[in-house]
Predict the 3D structure of the following.
Amino acid sequence: MDQLPSDLPGTARPTRVRYGVLAFAAALSMVTYLDRVCISSGQSYFIRDLGLRSEADLGLVFAMFTLAYSIFEVPSGWLGDVWGPRKVLIRIVLWWSFFTALTGIIGMHVGGVVLGGVATLAVVRFLFGMGEAGAYPSITRALHNWFPVQERGVAQGTVWMAARLMGGLTPMVWLVLVEGFHMPGTASGTMAGGWLPWRATFWLFGAIGVVWCVLFVYWFRDRPDQKKSVNAAEMALIRSSAAESEAGHARVPWLKIISSPNLWALCMMYFCQAYGWYFYITYLPRFLEVQHGVDPKSIVGAIYKGGPLWMGAIGCLVGGYVTDWLVRRTGRRFGRKSIGACGHAACMVCFLLCPFAPNAFTFFLAISLAGFSADMTMGSSWAVCQDIGRRYAAIVAGFMNMIGNFGGFVANLMSAAILSWGLSRHAATLGKSVESLSVEATTAGLKTGYQINFLVFAAFCLVGVVCWLLIDADKPVVGESDATPNRG
């Protein structure tokens, strides 16, 4: 079990500059989810303006983001280790902010010309995903440089809490900025909000990323010894894990890394978690509106749409604290995997309950508890990347997030295919074509597809439990004797 160093300077209290680093990481995490989730809130507008039949037609659009995000995770994570997180994160945020803004132009009518269709939207989302790839591996590299091992679970849990919180808030932000909502205690026609055209919201969200970059360039440094405000006591505290904190370098032992069974157990676990999780930021808002009749201008509806992310934010923080508490008492191996296995098992049960929810409220409870349970494992998951990656923490995190988001890519394609199958099957039962189905018949056909999808999500959670049991946080992917440090 890891202990604090016994020779911390006794005459000075450690400064807390590392928490400023955590604040920037958490703020960035919020911006990533604001830009990532907003398309699910706007999907009804895209369906209308692009002449689509249903949300099933957006499956490729959702999938292209996750495909690009997964492909470029490892290269961007490697750059985070080699160049340092500061340079890499600036490039990442500026890139994805541009394509967030560009998303708001697709389907716009200008002088009788339509600016792109669903294929163009898919390409833009692919480029958006390419830009956002590497954000979390680089954040992991930054936290690895700035936090001792006994604080990593909480730090990672805080970053993911911020992400989930913003993801949960995004439907509410969209409601206020775009839809407007009925004011409580007033006549039904009295509305508040609705200040921006829906397309302008994408432009605003893109601009927020640019503002973050300006502040980040001014304040952040890659390592604590580059920041004058860090005192000797905080430096000693951070360096209590010095043996694991060497910078990455160009001569990476790729074969040793990719041949690690520990790495692949971690990656497959994250694949299973992401498979069901992507439902929250793709189909969930439309599902609640169409399947459970949730009013798109309802505050309660916005809370329901963000439910798994709201609860996931709590789960991230709770799980981060619990895994660090267990690590201090039982060691890393049990302290990481126990939270992971229990979280995935509970999530499986919640997904199994979703098809049987009779109304929007009970479904909200089931899906929100699924989000809480799965996200309790986030602090453990990303702390394990540091535990077993060590000086290659960003590369290991990149591999995990790459395979995880490839799971999201597969889920988006498969979920859409299952929804389309449900529509076709229902149309065949009625002796009609899918195109001729009424709104009510389309809703009924999609319901069958959604029910099957929830069962598939639960099955992947079960596989995730098995993967967690195979993960050993005490076993690095590359032994210290096999790595060549570069202090330059």
In short: Confidence is low (pLDDT under 50) at residues 483-488. The beta strands are 109-110, 113-114, 181-182, 191-192.
